[in-house]
Amino acid sequence: MKVLVAGAGWAGLAAAIELTKSGHQVTVIEASRHLGGRARALEVKLPDGSTSTLDNGQHILIGAYSETLRLMREVGVNPQDVLHRMPLTLRFPDGNALELPDWKNPLIKGLDVAWGVLHAKGWNWADKLSLLRAAALWRLKGFECEPHTTVAALCKSITQPVMQMLIEPLCVSALNTPADRASGQVFLRILKDSLFASTAGDMGSSNLLLPKTDLGSLFPQAAAAWLAKRGCEVRLGERLTKIESLSNSERAVRISCRRTDDSSTISVEKFDSIVLATPPTEAARIARASGHSTWADAADALQHEAIATVYAYAKDAKLPCPMMALKSSPTEPAQFVFDRGALTGQTGVLAFVVSASQGDAATIEQQVITQGQKQLGLPSLQAIQTIIDKRATFACTPALQRPTPQITPKVIACGDYVQGPYPSTLEGSMRSGLVASHSVQAELPSANH
């Protein structure tokens, strides 16, 4: 069957791979000139005048991202070659730290968490016991809570030092939503699948996986090459403008596309099914233009959170470990800093991440540079480039009603924003793409033969 995938981000590429594996004729179109959507490579100039490949935002994966790791292997990328694996570590410049041991297969899942908590630096016994009691209660309740519970309410029995050093950084990095507004249920799902997973997997479910290469090389480029080798057409610079359902006898939909460089309509084509793998605002526009305003209203109703990545340079910049946590505040907003020299060989380059960021780029950049100079002791630190994605993720709030994947039986939406158990993450994107591919095949005429 002929299937169109609109959008060459991680979700769209995942859907295209699964559909191609099932023998369908897949065409992928992408409005931009880049693969990877919000997780892609970016060329920037360094202070010395040289050009370097960074990313449009610093990302991190965890070992629990089972579908992401599987699809990377599917297209020929070995995760062990491109990802730096390290046990969950939150080490602060002042010496406070929570570090889980590097146990490959603990006899009891969660025992490594208990060991890390008991040996944490910067907490007293009351702090440690408050966290262990809360974690035991979460396990006892099957990692479930009332739908309207926030992370802050979920953790009300946990002491303030633990909230500041662990819960709040984990929450804002995983859900990109502050703890007082974030969904307690989604937070528990992340904890269950990572820290307390029943199976660890070959990369260790709770381990941090930090990219050692640019995001384009991590998956999108290999995925496009894999698809092309199998006859899938990938067309960049082409935007889907409208979807029109045809008669039931034709069992097809007609789509209109235009080039993004000259706005001219270049094709009107028929497909058996459409996977809409665009950002929610673009998906809502297409759905509304195609007569599906109810679904478009649900997508438009999502609130969004921004993420800022400040790339900075100091000749003598070298962190004690590839990723460090920072003490954040309204005037020192970065929660984490990454040593690109240790990860990618880009010596002296640091990436500061401000999740759920607020404010303009110039203000954030100045605040982060001052924060880095102060907390890391790098007086020569200077900004390279600041990237703010104002719609980086949806706000993962309690009892959030996310759009359904199915717009019509022949048009399926996918992306980290559609209904699913995960927040706005790469794994959420990949899983959504797989769900979309399965939904498409359930609706195709050939599925019953």
Describe the structure.
- It contains 15 helices and 21 strands.
- It is an alpha+beta fold.
- The strands form six sheets. Strands 10-2-1-14-21-20 form a six-stranded mixed sheet, covered by helices on one side.
- Helix 1 runs parallel beside helix 10, helix 2 crosses helix 15 and helix 11 runs antiparallel to helix 12.
- It is globular, with a radius of gyration of 22 Å.
- The two termini are 13 Å apart.
- The relative contact order is 0.18.
- The mean pLDDT is 91.
As a percent range, the share of strand residues is 15-25%
Gyration radius, rounded: 22 Å
The structure class reads: alpha+beta
Distance between termini? Answer: 13 Å
E-strand count:
21
Proportion in helices: 25-40%
Layout of SSEs?
Blueprint: E1 2-6, H1 10-21, E2 25-30, E3 41-45, E4 51-55, E5 61-62, H2 66-74, H3 79-82, E6 83-86, E7 89-91, E8 97-99, H4 111-118, H5 125-140, H6 151-154, H7 160-175, H8 184-194, E9 208-211, H9 215-218, H10 220-229, E10 233-236, E11 238-245, E12 253-259, E13 265-271, E14 273-276, H11 280-289, H12 293-300, E15 304-313, E16 323-325, E17 336-339, H13 340-344, E18 349-357, H14 361-376, E19 382-394, E20 406-408, E21 411-413, H15 426-443
Summarize the structure.
This protein is an alpha+beta fold. 34% of the residues lie in helices and 25% in strands.
